[in-house]
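Table S2 (text version). Query chain:
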Amino acid sequence: MRVAPLALMLAACSSAPQDLPPPLLPQRMGVDPIVAMRAEGVRYLALGEGQFVLRMYDDRISIARTGAEDLSFPRRDPMYPRWNGEIYESEANGHSLRIEIRRHDQCEGKDGRDTVDVTLDGAALSGCGRAF
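Corresponding structure-token output:
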């Protein structure tokens, strides 16, 4: 008598599997911009309120300015000033670039973002940045 209930439970478990919806994985939801930048090799990103976008890679620095051509510079070893941060200086194709990353000065309203001061061909730009 006890075999019948066990047989019914096994029959219910072995019935045809139900079609379940596919899981919602991040890969299926779209590409996260941070993941895409890391995959591209970006090590540091700085944004200057509509003025510039600066990307630092292992071997180069790329800066895109609003209304101007994109420039690429070789990445040199940083200088370490007395304040917490780094200074990068580079030159390429007649352009000069100086980047000051200040880790102790947090950007206003941007939790965990560094203050970034960029001097490009004598023009001073400022923004916020973060390492990846």
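Notes on Table S2: DSSP finds three helices and eight strands in the chain. The helical segments are 3-13, 26-29, 33-40.
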